[in-house]
Amino acid sequence: MSETPFDLALIGIGIGNPDHLTFEGAAAMRNADLIIIPRKGEDKADLADLRREICARVLDGAGTQIAEFDLPTRDADGDYLSGVSDWHDAIAAVWTETIASAAPRPKKVALLIWGDPSLYDSSLRIAARLDPQPSIRVIPGITALQALCAAHRIPFNDVGAPVLVTTGRRLRERGWPADADTVAVMLDGACAFQSLDPGGLTIWWGAYLGMDGEMLFSGPLSEVGPDIVATRAEAREERGWIMDIYLIRKLARAG
Q1: Ordered alpha helix ranges (H), 75-136
Q2: What is the pLDDT of residues 171-199, one digit of tens each?
Q3: Could you state, in order of their start, the residue ranges of all structural domains in the chain?
Q4: Domain 145-250 classified CATH 3.30.450.40?
Q5: Where is the Tetrapyrrole methylase domain (predicted)?
Q6: How many C-beta neighbours within 10 Å does residue 168 have?
Q7: Distance between the two ends of the chain, CA-based, in angstroms?
Q8: Long-range interactions of 43-48: CB distance < 8 A, separation 24+
């Protein structure tokens, strides 16, 4: 059996506000020998800058090394799942190279995860591809769903009702899920709600949650949907990237 090469902490850091980092996450950062930070290109420099800001606030002379790496891009052509699998292999290889290049050799490595490592994030799947396998620790963070509901001051679910969490791709391809009163949609780059019959649906949408320039829209889908589409396109053009999420609910029952 191969010796465990290092301990790997996947630390959820929330969705843009450094104050969202938990005390547990901060302690894990200070305890790490190395923190690795992905760079996603000049048009998404804000994301790396926020991670740098969190490190500057938390480490405060702790002596932790910081190493940055360029995140490989996913091939959008061909089969989606095969493309994602190849992309994860490429990221795992870059993680391995970045960690191996650190001197002295780190025993405790941390990766700062946007949002929470458990919710529509691939870090755990990528970490599972490392060979030999590190000892993995997951530290939960504030999710985009929590931040969205807090920003709009709404509960996640209707009274006694379930919520289905899905992606823009599935919503667009399969329509409104059967037996769902509330649908939370993530990873939607094309405003898939446009494919729905808006009658009787209310939407709560948010972008750049917890960050400077936070954007919020809510109301009947038929009324605010076009405004969201236009605003999203303008914001993405201006900043080069956008992170957004939304909740759609059928007309609430009484009670």
Answers
A1: 80-100, 123-127
A2: 999 999 988 999 999 999 999 999 999 99
A3: 7-142, 145-250
A4: no
A5: 8-224
A6: 20
A7: 58
A8: 43/239, 43/240, 43/241, 44/240, 44/241, 46/211, 46/239, 46/241, 47/114, 47/241
CA atoms within 13 A on the CB side of 254: 0
Q: Comparing C-alpha atoms, which of 5, 68, 247, 39 is closest to residue 148? A: 247
Which of 11, 20, 49, 13 lies closest to 151 in space, CA to CA? 20
Mean pLDDT of 192-212: 94
In CATH terms, the superfamily for domain 7-142 is Tetrapyrrole methylase, N-terminal domain (3.40.1010.10)
* Bridge partners of residue 78, in order along the sequence: none
Length of the chain: 255
What totals of helices (H) and strands (E) does the chain contain, helices first?
7, 10
Provide the token pair at 26: 């901060």
d(CA 182, CA 184): 7
Rg of the chain, C-alpha, whole Å: 20
Q: The tokens of 60 are what?
A: 């405060």
The pTM of the whole model exceeds 0.85: yes
